[in-house]
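Class prep. Write one:
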Amino acid sequence: MMRRKVMLLAPVFLAACATGQGNKTAPQASDTVRVESWLRAAKLENVPFTQTWPNGSTGGGVLTYHAGYLHLNYTVPHSMDLEASGTHAVFKDSQTGSETRMGLAHNPLGVLMGNPITLSGPVTVTDIQKPPGILQISLARTENPSQGLVTLIFRDAVRVLDLYEIRILDERQRTLFIRLGGV
C-alpha cells in the first residue's frame, strides 16, 4: 500500500523538481523578488536592440517596455513593428504590407505582459543561475510550461540589475535572442 502511494506521488515530486516548485532557498526567493520589482518598475524607452531569429538572421531597432507593454520598432533588415500589450500583439511588416494579430495566452512572450507583473501564480520561475556579475532567471506559464520559456539575463553589479538579453524558447524548441544596447 505504501509503495503504491509513493508511486502515485512520484510524478508530482518530479514535476515540482522540473519546474522549480520544490523548496526555494532564501537567495532564490530574494532574486525572484528583485527581478519582479525590476520588471514592475521598468521604464525602458527607445533602447537599441539587436535580434537573432532562430534561423540565424539578424535585425534590430529600438525597444520600449514597461509592465504590460512591449514595442519593438525594427529598422533592420527593414521597417517592421511589433506592439504587445496585455493578452495580444500586432506585428506589422511595411515591406509586405502585412499585419498579423496574435494572442499571447499561449506565447512565451505573454509571461512579460502582466500588469502588475508577478513571478508566481500564472508564471513559474523554472531556473535561476548566478555566474559572477550575472543574474539569469527563466520563466514559464505555470499551467503549461511546454508552451515556451523566457529567460532574462541581467548584469548584477552591486545589487543593481541591468537587463541586457532576453531569450525566448518557443514550443518547438527554437530560440530567439534579443540583446539590448546596440544595433
The domain at 24-180 is CATH 2.50.20.10 (outer membrane lipoprotein receptor (LolB), chain A). The chain has one domain: 24-180.
